[in-house]
Amino acid sequence: MKKNMRGLTYAILSISLLTVMAGAAMAPALGAIRDHFHSCSPLTVQLIVSLPALLIIVATFFFRALCRVMQTRTLALVGLTLYVVAGAGAFFVDSIGLLLVLRALLGVSVGMIMPLSTGLLSFYFPPRMQSRLMGLSAAMNQMGGVVATLLAGVLATVEWRYAFLVYLAGLLAIVLVAMMLPNGKLTSNDSRLELWTLVRFHPSVTAMLFIMLLFFVYPTNFALTAREQGVGTLTTTIIMVGLDMVAFAVGLMFGWLMNSIRRQMKYAAPLFFLGGYAVLAFVPGLAGMIVGSVLIGLANGVGVPYVNTIASIKGGRDAAVTVMPLISAALYLGQFLSPLIVSPLANAIGGTNVPYIVAMCLAVVFLLQAYITRRHHALPPSK
C-alpha cells in the first residue's frame, strides 16, 4: 500500500513540475523568436508568453464539466498529451499565427491539469499529510520553472525552435500518470454554481490573487533596475534563479513550518513581500538586491503552498472540482494583471523604484486581508 501511495505521489507531483512552464519558460527565447519574426509587432511576440495564461483562466471554469464526463486518469492523460503536442509541436511551425494557436492550446491543457496537481492531493490523501504534500507540490513547481527556463535559454542559442522541446518533459508525467494514477472519478456533492464556491472560499482565492500580483512585480522590473544600478546580466540571472531556489527550499520545509508555527503562517507571505520590496526600493546596491530577492523568494515559497493547503483542507475531497479551479484561475489572473496594474501607476509617478513602492502598498492591503479573514484561514488543530 505504501508503495502504491508513493507512486501516486510521484504521479501527481510530476504534474506540478510542468504547470509553471506554460509561459515563463519561453521568456529566454523571446529575443531569438523576435529576430525570426522581425516583421511582427513586439506585442504579438510577447503573446507567446502571456497568451497561455489567458486560456488557462478560461479552461479552469470548464474543469468541473470535464470531470463529469471523464475519469481522473483519462482527464490527466488527455491534458498531458495536449500539453506535449501543443508545447513541443511549436518546434515544427514557422508561422506566428499557428504558433499562437499552439500556445493557446497549451494554455487549455494547463487549465485541465493545473487543478489536478493540487486537487488530487486533497482527494487521495488525509488532511494531516496535505501541508507537506502541498509544500512539495510548490517546490516541484519552482524546480520545473528553474530547469525549464535555463534549458530553454540554452536550447534557444541553437535555434529558437529548439526551446519548445522543453515541453517533451510532459512525456515523463504521461508515463507516471498512466502507471500510477487510479482511474477514479472526481465528483462534488455541492451542485451549486462556481459563484457560490467563490463566495465560500473568497479568502483563499483573493490571497492567491494577491500573491501573484505581488510576485510578478519582481520579474517584470528587477532586470531593469539591476541594469540601472550597473549589475551585469549574468549576475542578475543568478540572483533571479537564486530566488526560485529559495522558494524551492521553503517548499521542501513547508510541512515542518506548518506544524511549528501554523497560526503565524497566514501573515508570512505579506510580511515577506513587504520587507522584500522595501529593501529593493530603499537599499541600493548588490546587497539590497540579494536580500530583497531572498525575502520575495520566501514570500512566494510560503504563500502558494499555504493557500493551497488551506483551500484543500477546507474543500475536502471536493476541493479538486470546487475551489482548486478557482485558485488556479486566480493564480494566472494575478500573473496577467500584475504589470497592467503596477506599470501604469509606476509610469504615472515616475522613478525606477516606484514599482517596488506600489508593491509595498499592495503588500499592506494583502496583510490587512489576511488579518480580516484570519478566522477563514484557521485550520483545525493537528491530531
Structure explained in plain terms:
This protein folds into two domains: 1-187, Growth Hormone, Chain: A (Up-down Bundle); 188-383, MFS general substrate transporter like domains (Growth Hormone, Chain: A, Up-down Bundle). It is built from 16 helices and no strands. It has helices spanning 2-19, 30-36, 42-60, 63-69, 72-88, 96-124, 127-156, 170-180, 194-200, 202-215, 217-228, 233-261, 265-282, 285-315, 323-349, 354-372. Helix 1 packs antiparallel against helix 8 (170-180) and helix 13 (265-282) runs antiparallel to helix 14. The longest helix is centred in the C-terminal third of the chain and has 31 residues, at 285-315. It is globular and about 55 Å long. The mean pLDDT is 84.
Number of domains: 2
The secondary-structure element order is: HHHHHHHHHHHHHHHH
Our Rg estimate from Cα atoms comes to 20 Å
Question: Alpha-carbon distance between the termini?
Answer: 22 Å
Report the average pLDDT across residues: 84
State the CATH topology of the largest domain. Answer: Growth Hormone, Chain: A
Total helices: the number is 16
CATH architecture of the largest domain: Up-down Bundle
> How much of the sequence is in beta strands?
under 5%
Q: Tell me the total number of β-strands.
A: 0
Structural class: mainly alpha
Identify the overall geometry: globular
Low-confidence stretches: none
CATH superfamily of the largest domain: MFS general substrate transporter like domains
Main sheet overview: none
Helix content: over 70%
* CATH class group of the largest domain: Mainly Alpha
